[in-house]
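hi! just following up on the protien thing from before. the input was this:
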Amino acid sequence: MRQFMQAQGIAAFIVPSTDPHSGEYVPAHWESRKWISGFTGSAGTAVITLQQCGLWTDSRYFLQAEEQLADTGFKLFKDRLPETPSIAEWLGRILQKNDKIGIDGWVNTVSEVEILQKKLFAHGLEVVSVTDPFETIWEDRPSIPQNKPFILPTEFAGKSCRDKLIEIRQALRQNHADGILLSALDEIAWTLNLRGDDVHCNPVFVSYLLVTEHEAALYILPEKLHEKTRKYLADNDICTYNYTEITRDLSRYSGATLLLPDPTNFCLFQTASTCMNVIRRPSPVSLLKAIKNDTEIAGFHAAMKRDGAAMVKFLKWLKEAVKDGKETELTVDRKLQEIRAEQAFYKGISFDTIAGYQPHGAIVHYEATEATALPLKPEGFLLLDSGAQYLDGTTDITRTIVLGPVTEEQKTDYTLVLKGFIALSMAEFPHGTCGTQLDVLARQYMWKAGINYGHGTGHGVGHFLNVHEGPHQVRMNHVPAILLPGMTLTNEPGIYKTGRYGIRTENTMLTVESRQTEFGNFYKFEPLTLCPIDKEAIRTEMLTLEEKEWLNNYHSQVYTQLSPLLDNSEKEWLKQATDKL
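and the predicted 3d structure came back as:
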């Protein structure tokens, strides 16, 4: 890398975690930051200078990064802490004025580059886009995925590709744009009713989609298309071109205006802005996709029932199996995947399972390996965050499972998390409310105890798509997207005590209409996830009557919905697990 930098005349090179499509999870071909640093978390930025190197990541990965960066030469910078310098500040301290900072414009969004340019300019530094260094320095680099996408029938999607294109074109007219370039892979998959397996756990495929008033063009490697898929695209009046031709065709674009969402990469933005008027606005497809139609909602309910039944079978097995002392964080992960795979429409996991026993539960995005997997003992907590992809929906659930005796401190923390979880579950709010305005509901009881957590409280969930979906979120920092009926949302507060234990409880919820008053429309949340919440660690004296009533009603619903899918012994176990407090 440093030989490349010297040849390019740059004093530093910045390596983000993303790909040309701004993906949170990316194909192996673009896992350059992981390859050069050894840090495997999904979020982080590596910076290499001619003498030093650093890696910035957020609180979800502090413990993991400390372990993985040991003895690599990379210094860990804990992002968003007051004492941590930004990348620009750090480079401003150690480099000389007029030094050049290199980036690969294909894997940095235009908004990120503009912010970086402004911050580095204040330190007398210049940002330059250079060729991808990993094309030459990464030997045996994985190729761009060659997997073939497949058609998602309308019986699962609920709306045809043609109808979706009509909605997108209506949005273009409202935005006074002649066309839009979609580069977010989940937006392309949703629009076309196609799914793929180019990205681990995310059923998407590498491509671009250019939609104008009269044409839609899919840019994809030609070898990725079956004849059946080609015919389907042609029947929907979608032209296909080689993935590598997107820059050439953008430069020939015949329209006067093109809408480019902020996640568009810098190279494509540069190409477009030289030959047309570019409109920088959020993608209308993001919102269209986030509001689930009736078929998608019915699919979510059906998928959650099957997934809940799988979770009950697993929990019943685990409570007994742990007594034998033969299970580890890895074996329980495999067992859960095995049970889920027996369910109808199962297509795989929706993210790598987090199975953290006791101290590992405090590592927010922990992933067990053969080297790190702890044996489970009949005591303490197992934090289990998992999910699955089904043709009719995507699941995401966390349960903190009591394996045996726990301390009074653990019980108190467990109940604080539960109180925040219930508070957000019971929220009722007027039209125009964004997730940031609700975030405090989940944190209020922890804050009174001097406790907080560093991750967001909730995110959208795709319909047989990415498990993390925007534009809405529930988190402390401001996210302006308002919550609307039809949006899915997770509810996942937690407490993490380094080296000791972690606790998180998570359901996926659906935003629904509540009532209309003289003050406008009000919304609330309906639970989609169906799975008992372990009652053994609850300090019932800390719960109000209203909180107990909510939990009892939820557990009643869990039993009613799941018991028909279980055998007699599983029903009996579930009956006890969902008995009233």
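The mean pLDDT is 97.
The longest strand covers residues 507-517.
cheers
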